[in-house]
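ESCALATION

Customer reports they have been waiting on this structure for their group meeting. Please prioritize. Original submission:
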Amino acid sequence: MNNYTIRYNPLKNRIYITFSKALDLKEAKKYAQEINQLINKAKPNFTTYLDISCDPIHSKKVNDLFDNLRKNIIDKEVKGVATIMSKSKVAELQIRRTLQIFKHHRIFSNGIEAEGYLDSL
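Update from on-call: job pushed to the front of the queue and completed.
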């Protein structure tokens, strides 16, 4: 079983990503392949819904791999990113730093607010 789920909604042109716990390097490589396929499938100006409310803490190697994924997302012309996370201030600081490269990015405590934000872009 994967520690993540991903899917693409072509009607909303949105990629949905949910982590259930941190990924090890092997699983992160599999995830990277799968998410790159969805990024290539998405039309320009897609949005990304990222649920990391489980507060996954990934290794440096996994985070480096995720840096490349973020660049691919930007290159494909992402319109906006909404992140759902817990109330952890440490996690929030970390994710704000990591995702500041996106022009439109906001953090939410629930999926309804995140969907509303992405729908408004």
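Sent to customer with the following note: The mean pLDDT is 90.
Escalation resolved.
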